[in-house]
Structure formats: C-alpha cells, structure tokens
Amino acid sequence: FGSAQKQSASWVRSPRGASRSPEGAGKGFVFVPACFITSEAFLRSLGKGPASQAPLPSVLPDSGDPPIICHLSPTAAICLWWPAVDSRCVLLGEQLSLLLRHPDQPAHPKVLKVAVIGAPNAGKSTLSNQLLGRKVFAVSRKVHTTRNRALGVLTEGDTQIILLDTPGLTTVSKVKRHQLEKSLLVDPWNTVKEADLMVVMVDVSDRWMCGRLDMEVLKCLSQHPDTPAILVLNKVDKVKAKDRLLDITAVLTCGMVNGCRIRVRPVIKPPWATKPPDNHSASLDEETHAETERCSELNCQGWPHFKDVFMLSSVDREDVETLKTYFISKAKTGSWEYHSEVLTDQSPEDICTNLVREKLLECLPQEVPYSVTQVTPV
C-alpha cells in the first residue's frame, strides 16, 4: 500500500475477525462494513464533515488473505476495500462517496421535504419518477410494489426538493393476512414526521376509493395537523366525465380548501330549480342548507385542511411540471442535505432488487408474486 497509506490508516480488520490498530495510530474503533448498513445510517454515523474527493483505490493485494481496510482522513473521507473486487463493490463505493460529498449549495439555498402518501396503488412512485425525470422507483399495476421508504433528490437552481416515496398505507390485519413486510406499517408514519409538506394522492379512476379518503390516510393527517398537506387527484385521464372531479374534490376536502369554503354548482340550471316565492321561504331554505352542511361535516369522508388541490395524470409531464413549480415556490430557506448530483439514497443493489420485484409483479398472476421469496446473491 505504501508507507504513507500505512501510517494514515486508522483501522484494520482481517476477515478472520482479528482486529488491530496500526502502529502510531490512535485507539481503534468498531466498524461495520457498509454493505450491511443503510446509506442513511451510514451518513448519520460517519457524515460529520465535508467528504474528500479522493478516488477509491484500484489495486488490491494479489496474494494471501486480504484485509478489510477503512481509512479515515482528517476531512472524514472514507475508502472501503473488499476482499473481492466486483462491479457491485465499485458501484456501492461510488454511491457512498457521492452521498458523503459535501453539498455544493449556492449562496442562498432553499430546501423542501415532501412526503408522498396515499392508499396502495394510487400512483405515488409514478409521480416521484416523473418529478425526478428518471425511473428510480419500481412501478407496477399491482398493490404494494413499494415495500420501503425511498428517497429521491430533485435539484433545480438554488432549490433542493427531497421526495420521500412511501409504501401505501395499510392496516395491521392486512399485513398479517398477506404476510407482508413490517416496513409497510412503519415507514409511512415515520416519513411524515420529517416532512415539510404532505402530498395525499387519490386514484380518481377507482370509483370505490375516490368517494372518500382512506381511513389510514385520515388517521395520518389527523395525527399531524401542523404539517401542511395538499390533495393530488391522480389518473384524471381515465375519467370520462370531467365534471365528476369537482364533486370528488368537494367530498374529499369536506368543501374546504385553504380555509375557504368551495361550492360546486351545475353549469346548466335544472328545470325543477325555481326561485323562492318569498323571503320567508328563502330564509327557511338557508336554514335547511346550513343544517345540511353541519350534518355533512360530521359525517365527512375527507380532510378540510388541505392547502391546495391538484388534478393531474402522473404520466403527463406538463401536469407534473405544474406540481414541481408549486414545490419550488413552497421551499424555505435552509441548507441542502445532498450534493446536486445525488438522485437517490438507494444503493445500486436496492434499485436492481426493486426492479426485479416490479417484473415479478407484472408477469406473475394474482397472488403468486407475493409468495415468491426474492434473494439477491452477493
């Protein structure tokens, strides 16, 4: 390795488990190989300062049992050496190096964390992919394609939008019945806690789901009333009668958007609608209407505190561009968390695993793909 590298190395561990500190170095520390921990945990434990731009080593010892070496420079950079050199190690090393790189933020940076939540198969991952401009998250026509919380980074000018894609909100009984991962119950709720804005997605092409907000979504909104939320009606291209979208909006928002009451009126006056004959009848109608509104609020199937409502199709770039502009306008002054070149915190192995799951869900019928155990050899 050279004398300079030997003197600067701070920890050495052999594959047999024996650990030691090099001569002249300080006390050793316990190190978990990066392939066994998530990038988020990796950043929390080691990302204490700006990362070095030094490339990964390209030469390994060709004889004996090579050690695993972690070299920490004064700038907290890290170089990881594996016993075997393969493409996975190279890609993982490049991803970790990029995540550790110090954000190249401008003089006046702005940032916004957006949590995308909703019922399963509402189009959350499709929207996130369209916002990022690339296929980063797995998408299929079956429910529960997304099994874990995933992060995407969109950097536009001086603004960084952090998209938090979550699994569809579901219940404990459904997870036990279908033997799904526990992350489907934990990740959406934990993600909302760190978000600056919630995006609630509803599939308006599903007539059974667009008549009311999912109960788990309502629970999530009610437990975080201080976090701003917007309603996104997705798949509007599949709705033939567009006037239904106004009725759906009125139901899902309880007739309230950003503190203002909305009214949906027909464009064509029905033949049975006549003007009240006198003031007495008009006052009775007003009282009846007010009482009806109070009763409807008690039985409301929506959330009356949405800040805005968007009607779009996740596969339409122009529609999504409008939502992206809205996110940028809502970003607040703050430091960036990632370098502008970062697109996601997922490792290449995670992305490949999710893509394989996507194809299994698309090609295998009914419940078969949910009973398949997926193994990624390393």
Description:
- Belongs to the TRAFAC class TrmE-Era-EngA-EngB-Septin-like GTPase superfamily. Era GTPase family.
- With 378 residues, this protein is α/β, with parallel strands linked by helices.
- Helix content is 33%, strand content 15%.
- It is built from 11 helices and 13 strands.
- Strands 5, 6, 7, 8, 9, 12 and 13 form a 7-stranded mixed beta sheet that branches.
- A hairpin with a 2-residue loop joins strand 6 (150-156) and strand 7.
- The longest helix is centred in the last third of the chain and has 20 residues, at 279-298.
- The protein starts with a helix and ends in a 15-residue tail after the last helix.
- The model is unreliable at 1-39, 45-85, 280-285 and 287-298 (pLDDT under 50).
Total number of helical segments?
11
- The share of residues in helices is 25-40%
CATH architecture of the domain at 110-266 and 301-353: 3-Layer(aba) Sandwich
Annotation, overall tally of beta strands? 13
Average pLDDT? 74
Amino-to-carboxy terminus distance: 26 Å
* Largest beta-sheet details: 7 strands, mixed
CATH fold-level topology of the domain at 110-266 and 301-353: Rossmann fold
Shape: globular
Name the CATH class of the domain at 110-266 and 301-353.
Answer: Alpha Beta
* Uncertain segments: 1-39, 45-85, 280-285, 287-298
CATH superfamily of the domain at 110-266 and 301-353: P-loop containing nucleotide triphosphate hydrolases
Region (G5): 312-314
Region (G2): 144-148
Region (G3): 165-168
Pfam family, one: MMR_HSR1
